[in-house]
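Severity: low
Component: inverse-folding endpoint
Summary: output formatting inconsistent between runs
Steps to reproduce: submit the following structure tokens with default settings.
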């Protein structure tokens, strides 16, 4: 969510605030007001607030702080300065520095999230994935990271967060950062050898052993299939955003990438 495409003025208490809509989210309408970002409140928002509080308390300051709810009933978070990795990816976001720093940030987030795993009755958006080890971000990709001078300096959009194994998050990050996509995918780059090199660079930067790395790579296909199934179920339940994504061919793209990944040994 980086490029600005509209501005409106909203009135609450005190002076009028300039509300700037941010693009790139795809599902939620997200706006910037001064040094803050406003996002819709959902059923799972209380769980996200707990997670962000834990991350910040543990020193993961790349995660935004939550500042309550505004007059329109929206969550208020820090605005994180920098470049959000929207497509088409810039050279900065495609760099090895971006990849390594993102892997290191994901590891710190996972480690810091462990105390939240044991908290009962948190209303996550997604069901837990066994074996539960950490709280996964659920959508850790360039478009949900903020980059400054080639380094990942922020992470946003925790709507898909939930309990699960580390490899569940790592698998999706590998898919996006290596990226482990079919050669015809215009968002991809590099041949299979380069994809494998970048994938293992990410895994080692995260701190995976060889065995853990292989498990994460083996999870890429099932992780993408889970996403396809989630999109279809959400669309069937009346979610217009996911129905639009399917109509635009996103599910078909993931299915093609599943076949590509599972047909190779990275």
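Observed output (run 2 of 3):
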């Amino acid at each position: 969510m980086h490029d600005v495409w509209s501005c409106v003025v909203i009135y609450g208490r005190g002076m009028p605030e300039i509300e700037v809509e941010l693009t790139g989210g795809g599902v939620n309408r997200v706006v910037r007001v001064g040094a803050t970002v406003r996002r819709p409140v959902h059923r799972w928002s209380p769980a996200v607030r707990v997670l962000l509080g834990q991350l910040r308390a543990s020193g993961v300051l790349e995660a935004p702080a939550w500042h309550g709810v505004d007059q329109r009933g929206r969550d208020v978070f820090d605005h994180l300065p920098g470049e959000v990795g929207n497509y088409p990816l810039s050279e900065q976001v495609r760099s090895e520095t971006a990849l390594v720093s993102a892997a290191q940030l994901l590891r710190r987030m996972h480690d810091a999230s462990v105390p939240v795993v044991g908290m009962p009755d948190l209303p996550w958006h997604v069901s837990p994935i066994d074996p539960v080890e950490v709280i996964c971000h659920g959508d850790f990709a360039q478009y949900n990271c903020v980059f400054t001078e080639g380094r990942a300096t922020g992470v946003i959009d925790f709507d898909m967060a939930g309990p699960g194994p580390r490899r569940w998050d790592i698998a999706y990050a590998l898919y996006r950062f290596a990226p482990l996509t079919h050669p015809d995918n215009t968002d991809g780059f590099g041949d299979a050898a380069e994809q494998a090199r970048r994938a293992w660079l990410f895994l080692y930067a995260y701190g995976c052993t060889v065995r853990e790395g292989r498990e994460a790579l083996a999870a890429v296909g099932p992780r993408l299939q889970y996403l396809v199934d989630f999109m279809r179920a959400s669309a069937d339940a009346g979610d217009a955003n996911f129905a639009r994504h399917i109509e635009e061919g996103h599910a078909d793209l993931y299915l093609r990438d599943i076949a590509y990944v599972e047909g190779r040994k990275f």
